[in-house]
């Protein structure tokens, strides 16, 4: 039997590849949800702080307590009752725990010695556990600093342990811990800080302007005319009284330490001079002396300075204007 002829075979032509833009241009996209406004979003609202931390004056505390214990809410045709704790809290917006605490303070009489503008009553906060030890430690610290001794953290640690064994013999040695928190509170309570050891602090005299004026007036009163030197009346010269500006000079000496004393020590806050004993007394206090020559006309002149000194001429008018002139 002869085979059956095969059917027609359809040959598809080879089409060019489509780009990504053309491919997605013919695809219909599904629309997404509409964008909501910020006011219509389902975002959770921030939680309201019911009782934020606040500080209250004594006058406000007494006002709240007076409202709490005074009958002011109607309980019938002719009767009044005291507000409850919850009603007082809602009226003034204060925590319920504050009401009990304020009532206890008022019954103990802690508000009697205070003004209405104060906030806290005395005796609050954490009490010091080793009060006797801290008092003795501070006295030893003051005595050592008065004698010029250096005080560092190691000294506080060693002396505090010795004082603990002396004043608390019945306590276990592990009860007292020289921690950073205890040491920081001890320094803050007694106003002590770590300072650099320095020389004597210099201070500008309070009456420096009067000293300059008195010195100038003395020179004017005791000056004499010297005919023949161009200082007779009528000459056009830059002078002050009967002296030319080139002949008016003020000289002063100021120490210049090569370096400050080495080291740091704990000392009371507010003191400008932090001194300490040194094993090399002369070596640590070495310094130079500067001879400052100030001419009234402001011109520089070469003067022969003393041995080891240097002269820096400056203008007298400029120093007086800036308040740096010391007579």
Automatic annotation (TrEMBL):
TM segment ranges: none
Chain ranges of the HTH CENPB-type domain: 121-196
Pfam families membership: HTH_Tnp_Tc5 (PF03221)
Sorted UniProt keywords: DNA-binding
Origin: domain of life: Eukaryota
Alphabetical list of Gene3D superfamilies matching this protein: Homeodomain-like (1.10.10.60)
Keyword match DNA-binding: yes
One annotated GO molecular function: DNA binding
Protein name per the record: HTH CENPB-type domain-containing protein
Organism (species): Choiromyces venosus 120613-1
């Amino acid at each position: 039997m002869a085979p059956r002829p095969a059917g027609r075979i359809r040959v598809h032509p080879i089409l060019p590849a489509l780009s990504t833009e053309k491919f997605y241009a013919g695809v219909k996209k599904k629309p997404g949800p509409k964008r909501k406004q910020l006011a219509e979003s389902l975002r959770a609202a921030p939680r309201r702080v019911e009782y934020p931390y606040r500080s209250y004056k004594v006058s406000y505390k007494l006002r709240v307590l007076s409202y709490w214990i005074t009958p002011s809410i109607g309980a019938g045709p002719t009767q009044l009752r005291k507000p409850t704790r919850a009603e007082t809290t809602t009226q003034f917006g204060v925590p319920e725990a504050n009401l009990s605490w304020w009532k206890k303070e008022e019954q103990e009489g802690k508000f009697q010695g205070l003004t209405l503008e104060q906030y806290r009553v005395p005796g609050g906060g954490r009490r010091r556990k080793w009060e006797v030890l801290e008092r003795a430690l501070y006295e030893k610290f003051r005595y050592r600093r008065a004698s010029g001794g250096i005080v560092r953290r190691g000294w506080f640690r060693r002396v505090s342990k010795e004082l603990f064994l002396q004043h608390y013999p019945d306590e276990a040695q592990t009860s007292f811990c020289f921690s950073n928190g205890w040491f920081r509170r001890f320094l803050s309570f007694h106003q002590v800080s770590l300072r650099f050891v320095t020389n004597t602090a210099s201070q500008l005299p309070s009456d420096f302007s009067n000293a300059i004026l008195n010195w100038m007036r003395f020179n004017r009163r005791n000056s004499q005319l010297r005919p023949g030197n161009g200082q007779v009346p009528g000459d056009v010269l830059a002078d002050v009284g009967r002296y030319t500006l080139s002949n008016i000079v003020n000289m002063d000496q100021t120490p210049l330490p090569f370096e400050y004393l080495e080291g740091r020590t704990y000392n009371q806050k507010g003191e400008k001079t932090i001194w300490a004993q040194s094993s090399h007394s002369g070596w640590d206090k070495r310094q130079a002396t500067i001879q400052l020559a100030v001419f009234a006309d402001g011109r520089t002149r070469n003067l022969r300075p003393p041995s080891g000194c240097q002269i820096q001429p400056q203008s007298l008018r400029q120093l007086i204007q800036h308040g740096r002139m010391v007579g």
